[in-house]
Amino acid sequence: MFAKYFESQQRVDELSGSGGSYLLDGFAAKLWEIGFAEITARRHIRAAEHLLHWTDKKRIPYTDLSQDAIARFKKHLKKCTCSRYGHANPEGLMHGVRLFTDYLREAGIMATSDVGDTTLGPELLVEFCRWMRERRGTKDSTLATYGISIGKLLRNEGTDPTNFTAPRLRKFVLDESSRQGLAATKNCTTALRMFLRFLIAEGKCRPDLDAAVPKVANWGLSSLPRYILANDVEKVIASCDRAIPVGIRDYAIVLMLARLGLRAGDIVRLRLTDIDWKGASISITGKSGRPTKFPLTREVGRAIVDYFQRARPPGSTDAVFVGCRAPFHQFANHCAVSAIVERAMRRSGVACPSGGAAHVLRHSVATAMLRDGTSLQDIALVLRHRSTATTQIYAKVDLPELQRIAQPWPEVQSC
């Protein structure tokens, strides 16, 4: 397999004769299968080779490549003096390492019990993730969310918990809240409290420091739905260039969001078997895990077919929508879908009224339905709200109806 990537026979012989050459050969075949460009694949093979060289020096078996070992290798890169291995771009090299360890797990060579791969960040964060898995059974997806805020904290305040103080923690939360929305701020405070409780339990910081994290004020139904007008929705859809693969994919995604009122996560979870072509329906599995059938309109169906025929790369995943660059995996999370909508809005010149561009389209669907005379009960069914109380927020944007029930302002004589 090496000959597909390297012209030099000397380099091929060098890889073939190295320790763990069968692992590298299998990894090279995997990179070829998922469509990496040759120059990129060579970089990733080089990264895997460097990792194997380091594990050999440290006498760490391939099967015991734990999360701690990967974190140690990342630290090693900062002061690496290994001959033959450059380390000008440690982050790029670690991307190759992650791909290699993914391959080892898929091939059953490397154990999966200790590798939730939440992050390859600071050791303190790795310890926290392990502690949460062992003590609380926390899922890796939750730990990945926690890791975003905790990673920022450790980069800002340092990795020595004895230096954490209540004022600095409060300032960190306030700074973060000024840059993000309510939901993200609440996730941040939850993550910090859990992290501080771990530090307290391990005797690494003051025992009362978790109380320093402020609570986030949140009043139900106090906000207005963020939406764009129907004409602007059409501009966003039309901004996708259907002459190129990425534009064909983005058009299908934006169209589904704008016509069906789906969440970004629904697009991520959509599978090939969820589309019933004969019955002209799509089965959407929402946050609750319960599937709901939506009609497959001719417009949406044609967009998906066009994506399958002209833009979707070949691969083993059954996800409907995948990345346009190798490796052709499904989207990691809802943020990737929201980023697609954000780019479409920028191209169309439509201002996004809030963060979470994909959700703005969902709000826009509901707002348009209400203005067309659809009842709140029917809108709740389309949006899959468990309670119509959640849907009542859209009544705030029905200005004609609000004007009908508004009471006149009582007049008083001036003093």
Automatic annotation (TrEMBL):
Leader sequence residues: none
GO terms for MF: DNA binding
Top-level taxon of origin: Bacteria
GO BP terms, alphabetized: DNA integration; DNA recombination
Ranges for domain Core-binding (CB): 119-200
Keywords from the named record: DNA integration, DNA recombination, DNA-binding
Keyword Repressor listed: no
Domain Tyr recombinase: 223-407
The protein, known as: Integrase family protein
Organism expressing this protein natively: Caballeronia sordidicola
